Amino acid sequence: MASSKGNRSRVLASRKAGPGSAFTEAELGAIEQDNPEGLSVQQVVEAFVEKGERMSEATFRKYVQLGLLPRSRRVARQGKQRGSKGLYPPTTVRQLAYIRRLMSQGFTMEEIQRDFLFVRGDIEALGRQLQRVYGALEEAMSSRPAREGSSMRTAMSEAREVGDDLVRRLEAIERHLTMRARMARAAV
What residues have CB less than 8 Å from 6, skipping those under 6 apart? Predict the structure, then answer.
């Protein structure tokens, strides 16, 4: 009877705090859309805590140190002598939810590093960097005469298609490799 009660407690605890399962795709998209410049470590931790999941700054920073999450970039604070703050990419909550979901499935941090996230952050960073390049080029083109702008806009549209296709293809390769790692794990 005692073991049955213990099992029930574990099941209830896993339902309540199932890592990575608390966020819907819509919620993750909203977090990313609301924070295009990035999130502070406090905002990331708060997002998980609000969903009833355990998360601390120390745990978050450990994931960053292990290379499971991207490092922050320093952004100057407004005002005189306010210093700077670290901002993590807007997709950090999504990535952290994914890591926690994998851990809840029994994967170790080492397996996650090796088999799942070895290039995911780099692909996401490439996508963000391409978006910044597109924006800068389009802004520069907007000041050009109309006769020049037409051919440049066509070239820009083609470049955007190639860049977006590259990111999609890299994501597909990464998904394929991670699926193979999952299948190998399931076969064991």
Answer: none
